Amino acid sequence: DFISSVTQDTNPVWLGLTMTSPEWKWTWLDNSLLDQRMFPVVGPGERNSCGVIKGKQIHSETCNAVVKWI
C-alpha cells in the first residue's frame, strides 16, 4: 500500500530491479535474485530491461525510459 500511495497508481517507478547477464535473470541492486513467485513481472524480460511498478504490478520496461525511482 505504501508504494502504491507513493506512485499514485499512474506513473511507473523504478524499483532497483534489472535484467542482468550472463543468465538474464531479474536482479536487485544488491545482486540478489527476484523471487517471481512473490513478485511476478508483467511483460518480457529482455536485455536492457528494468523492473518498474505500475499500479500494483511490476512491469518490464526499457532501462532507457525516463521514470522516477524509489
TrEMBL record:
SUPFAM superfamilies: C-type lectin-like. One of its GO terms (biological process) is regulation of natural killer cell mediated cytotoxicity. Pfam families: Lectin_C (PF00059). It comes from the Eukaryota. The keyword Membrane applies. GO terms for cellular component: cell surface; plasma membrane. GO terms for molecular function: signaling receptor activity. Residues 1-70 form the C-type lectin domain. InterPro entries: C-type_lectin-like (IPR001304), C-type_lectin-like/link_sf (IPR016186), CTDL_fold (IPR016187), KLR_subfamily_B (IPR051527). Keywords: Disulfide bond, Membrane, Transmembrane, Transmembrane helix. The keyword Transmembrane helix applies. This is C-type lectin domain-containing protein.
